[in-house]
Specification:
Number of strands: 18
Order of helices and strands: EEHHEHHHHEEHEEEEEEEEEEHHEEE
Number of helices: 9
Oligomer: single chain
């Protein structure tokens, strides 16, 4: 009997290091696809995002923008302009819950490149350095591919860059004729089509327990991106308090509310990543209302009482998450 289309494809796992973690792609390939060439192209795409947007690389385009004086136009490549544009849009739509100009606070609290522990003097300085909303303090000129700051602010794209890197991987896969793949970078994933046999890609939703890796549920993805933000993975311990790495620009401090994690579905990784961060910062009640008003598909895991309360919108409201156990 002749092979079905799914039987003629080859399952491949491609991966590599980046951004202090690893990128990975699980894909079903035609036998004619040059896997070494695809591996190199994927690695190059992720490397480009890291080289342009990393706050840990002094020569990145992001750091060149951060070093520029206020009102000085800085020419930037189209990739970082795309991410800056989306970051400012989400910042405006979220009422500032997502803010790409909190870089000084990130560094001051020990989550950036400057230091690995909170510094009281740096926190005071970052708190006192006030400026307007990000979409007013950072001006973009897409036609000329440039940006300028209207205040001495520090841009940080860590809440959106990994999602964009997943989008870039998806674009590379398409360019190589791949129609069935799951691209991942840390907590950001994007499905390209389904698996070759027509089944959706199954993705584990992590339980928000510090120091423990366990599955809360399973998502099924088809041509869809997902991102999760939470307070349980990256944090610093200050006395009895656990301070999450995500900044709340309204408090000029790490986010501190009842949200353990937020998972967002979106057509692209960049938007899923940014909105997961925004809703985490917004908090349970306000975040849920914001997501509902904007028609976002989100799952909130809230710490209330002695356990977790699960609240979902969109496909999550229809129990798109299969509880484990």
């Amino acid at each position: 009997m002749p092979k079905t289309p799914s039987e003629s494809l080859v399952r491949a796992r491609l991966h590599g290091p980046t951004m202090g973690t690893r990128w990975s792609v699980l894909c079903d390939l035609e036998p004619t696809v040059d896997q070494p060439a695809l591996q190199l192209a994927l690695a190059a795409a992720v490397q480009q995002v890291d080289q342009q947007m990393s706050p840990w690389k002094p020569d990145s385009e992001l750091m060149r923008l951060n070093r520029a004086a206020p009102e000085e136009w800085v020419a930037l490549p189209p990739e970082i302009m795309t991410v800056l544009t989306r970051a400012l849009e989400v910042g405006r739509q979220s009422g500032g819950a997502f803010d790409p100009t909190v870089g000084a606070l990130v560094d001051a609290w020990g989550f950036g490149a400057a230091r690995d522990a909170p510094d009281a003097a740096a926190i005071r300085a970052a708190t006192q350095a006030t400026h307007g909303p990000a979409h007013q303090s950072l001006e973009l000129d897409p036609a000329k591919g440039r940006a300028r700051k209207h205040a001495p602010l520090q841009v940080d794209l860590c809440g959106i860059a990994k999602g964009y890197a997943v989008d870039r991987m998806t674009a590379v896969l398409r360019q190589h004729g791949v129609a069935h793949a799951l691209a991942a970078l840390d907590g950001e994933l994007r499905a390209l089509g389904s698996q070759a046999d027509g089944q959706p890609w199954a993705v584990a939703l992590e339980s928000p327990a510090p120091g423990v890796r366990s599955v809360h549920g399973v998502l099924e993805l088809h041509d869809l991106a997902v991102a999760t933000s939470g307070d349980y993975r990256r944090f610093v311990q200050v006395g009895a308090d656990r301070l999450a790495h995500t900044m709340d620009p309204r408090r000029a401090a790490p986010v501190r509310n009842d949200v353990a994690s937020v998972t967002v579905l979106a057509p692209e990784g960049m938007s899923a990543d940014a909105w997961a961060t925004a809703l985490l910062v917004a908090g349970g009640d306000h975040g849920l209302a914001l997501a509902q008003r904007l028609g976002l598909e989100a799952l909130f895991l809230l710490r209330r009482g002695a356990g977790l309360v699960e609240l979902g919108l969109g496909r999550f409201d229809a129990r798109a998450v299969g509880a484990n156990g």
